[in-house]
Predict the 3D structure of the following.
Amino acid sequence: MPFIAVGEENSGHIDLHYEDHGSGTPVVLIHGYPLDGRSWEKQEAALLEAGHRVIAYDRRGFGRSSQPSIGYDYDTFTADLNALLTALDLRDVALVGFSMGTGEVTRYLATYGSERVSKAALLAPIAPFLLHTDDNPGIGQDVFDGFVAAAKGDRPAFMTGFLSNFYNYDVYAGSLVSKERFQASWNTATSASAIAAVACIPAWLTDFRADLPKIDVPVLVVQGDQDRILPPIHTGDRLPGLIDDLQHNVVEGGPHGIIWTHADQVNVALLDFLK
């Protein structure tokens, strides 16, 4: 299994696990919370069939990457992504983020620019800014404080509730989401670092509003209109006008986890965008 070193904590290296398959124009896939790079299986298959090189990695704290106690903020996550792109010397890359992974895409383009990047896709985006403040119509701090308390108090139970809303399981159980798929996601979520599971929640409140105007590549946004985790009213619906070159696709009936439940629609939009 390939790894790259992105830092150190005390006596140990912090390593990112990644998979690198296929050939052609490279696509880098950045997963969402609380899953890992394997959550992209339906997109990876479609991208490989279309002739792309596909690189998917596990964020620090998740999957087969190291599980340090430090670095769970978007500046560090983005530095990790930059280390991967640099180590593999990737050029003409399409960056594709899902959910929390859209934060890395946004912050990367604002911080490191587009020298290596040709296009970007934000699937179920987290930008521009989730928190309610005097100048932002977002979600109250108390909601996120509740998430932190729940994740600290009983992480497996928290993940059950989170994933239920991730997939709109009350609506799609047995049709678009099997009990086996739900269980596999829960297994992945609970095998992640307990520290990361809590520490990532404050990172969701990163303000990306200053990053968005710096994006100078074409951007695809795809989001379900029934997204309970990152409601469109606070996220994707606000992005037109904040990014210069934006294509905005709405998946009717789509929950947060559209890369699984509505994979065919997502893949068609993504492959058409990458042509």
